[in-house]
Amino acid sequence: MIVQVFPCLVLLVKLVLLSVLLPSATGSYHCSNNATQNSYLWRIEASPPIYLFGTMHVPYKKLWDDVPDNVKSVLSLSEHLCVELRLTDSETSKNLSACRYLPKNETLESVLPGGLYVRVLKYFVRIQNQFPKWLFGNASINGLSRIESDRLFHAMIGNWNRLRPVWLLMLISSLSRENVQERSIPLLDVFLDRAAEGMGKNVEAVEVYKEQCRPFNRLNNTKVFVALRKLLDYLEPLADGPISSTDSDLETYNCGDFKSLVSARPILPLPSSSKLPNLTSEEAGDLESINEFLVSQIVYRRNRRMSKTIMSLLSRQRNETYLFAIGAGHFVGERNVVHMLKKKGYSVNRLSVTETIPGPPLPKNIISLGDPSSQLTILNISSTIPTLPPNRPSHVPPTLSPETIARIIQSVFNNTQSIYTVDSVEVTPTTTSLNSATASTTVATPTSSVTPPTSSSSQTRSLTISDSQRTSDDSAFIPSASSGLRYNIGLVCVTLFFVLLIITSAL
Questions:
Q1: Lowest mean pLDDT across 22-31, 173-182, 202-211, 475-484
Q2: Count of CB atoms situated within 10 Å of the CB of 391
Q3: Cβ-based neighbour number of residue 313 at 10 Å
Q4: Where does the signal sequence lie (predicted)?
Q5: Does residue 55 sit in helix, strand or coil?
Q6: Rounded to the nearest 10 degrees, how much is the dihedral formed by the CA atoms of 349, 264, 120, 164?
Q7: Any alpha helices (H) in 175-301, and if so which ranges?
Q8: What's 364's DSSP letter?
Q9: CA-to-CA distance for 425 and 157, rounded, in angstroms?
């Protein structure tokens, strides 16, 4: 028994050392070439003032360290936080998911042109084969890691065959190594929502789900097919590689000309026209017409609605401070929210990153409030170790990379109770076989039930809709468990791990 426990102890000591020595995973962008850090904080001069903060819809760890101190002060002193949508609200999440699907009895197989559907199937197969590498790096891929990566893949694509074509395009665009590795990190908007709620503030939505979802559903499918083909033209040669997005947008947000970035970027997640291979003038025209429609609906129309919501709030008798945290793109470019407020006579000033705003400090546990999964919670170890199916190797490779070690430990402690849990989808995989004249491909096609994330609050507040009672569904995709000596050893390892942490913290 002691002989078996000793390697585990050595492994845990190495893990502690790695956690100390390895650099942080958070992004930090220091402006170079004498560039000044951008500010996305505005103050509407009223009594009390209303603040506007332009966010980016990215994992909070990439940006939180670079959020200016005055923004954090405003978050602390405000009694109300207003976000675009309350993605932590189960009803909102459920409606957003439902909005993405085709009408009843329709599938992508019946909607997409045959050749395009075959390309999508083949692309999914290639991406599924990349998942083990994205998750485990250069570690040996064994049966256990293959099961994990396959289940995660099915959970991320969900019931994809029922998606509308435009939402299929967005799904395909999102399947990158970076997104897979950061899947459990809340977006900055969600982080702010949870943190504010944990601090006892009122969190309210300025929109309803229809305003974000339905414009995409009104797109002409024929033109969406063109966009999907061009996206696959771009991605297919990269499918056997990392398909990793860059952080240049974050650098531009912090230090560069974000206004020009927003104005030049299409709404659909497509590469720039110069990167799309063999783009004809007709195809370019179709993509441009899609973008023009979405800019008018997703940007300009929403800007008008948001500015009206803010002006309605300004006209009320109130004695509390509000912070609006919405996408930075709504504060730059033509017909933005700030311009519309100024046009109506309101005084709106952009604050520099160095301007001090007095206010109470944020609580020390702000990270755990906004990202509950960042806190380790001891679980029943037997509930987190999957049972391997017959004919699958049951051993763990003798050499594990730091990423693999961290993921194994995470599977024991993660608050979501399983590393296979993805925010809103529970999947039961089935298999669909594809036979064509040119190839025979097998792709796993899951059937899914949508289980939106829950919130700790029992009520959701909105500036645009009446209060509604939340529902709660705590179901998660938890693999079945087995017992045995190795799990008891694992429990001893977990205990030793915490003893080590206590000793190191005491020293």
A1: 475-484
A2: 6
A3: 19
A4: 1-27
A5: strand
A6: 50
A7: 177-181, 188-198, 209-217, 221-235, 248-255, 258-264, 281-294
A8: T
A9: 9
Residue at token pair 């029922």: 162
Domain ranges, ordered by start, for the chain: 31-375+415-476
Which pLDDT tens digit goes with each residue over 440-464?
A: 343 333 333 333 344 444 344 456 5
HSE of 396 in the Cβ direction (CA atoms, 13 Å)?
A: 14
The reported pTM is: 0.68
Q: 3-class DSSP state for residue 240? A: coil
Write out the two tokens for 343: 């046009």
| Distance between CA atoms of residues 4 and 388, nearest Å | 21
Reduce the DSSP state of residue 353 to 3 states and report it. Answer: coil
pLDDT at 96 over 80: yes
User: Higher confidence at residue 270 or residue 340?
Assistant: 340
User: At a CB cut-off of 8 Å and minimum separation 6, what does 64 contact?
Assistant: 26, 188, 191
Instruction: Specify the 3-state DSSP secondary structure of 293.
Output: helix
The CB density around residue 272, as the number of other CB atoms within 10 Å, is 9
Phi, psi of 404 (to 5 degrees): -65, -45
pLDDT > 50? residue 331? yes
Contact 37, 28 (CB under 8 A): no
Residue 84, classified by CB atoms within 10 Å of its CB into exposed (0-12), middle (13-18) or buried (19+), is: buried
- DSSP assignment of 417-476 equals S-TT-BTTEEEEEEEEEEE-SS-EEEEEEEEEEE-PPP-S-SEEEESSS--EE-------
Over the stretch 106-125, which tens digit does the pLDDT of each residue have?
999 999 998 999 999 999 99
DSSP letter at 296 equals: I
Strand extents, DSSP E, 94-143: none
pLDDT (tens digit per residue) in 127-177 = 999 898 888 876 666 777 888 889 999 999 999 999 999 999 999 999 988
Percent of the chain with pLDDT over 70: 62
d(CA 505, CA 412): 21
Structure tokens at 24: 């942080």
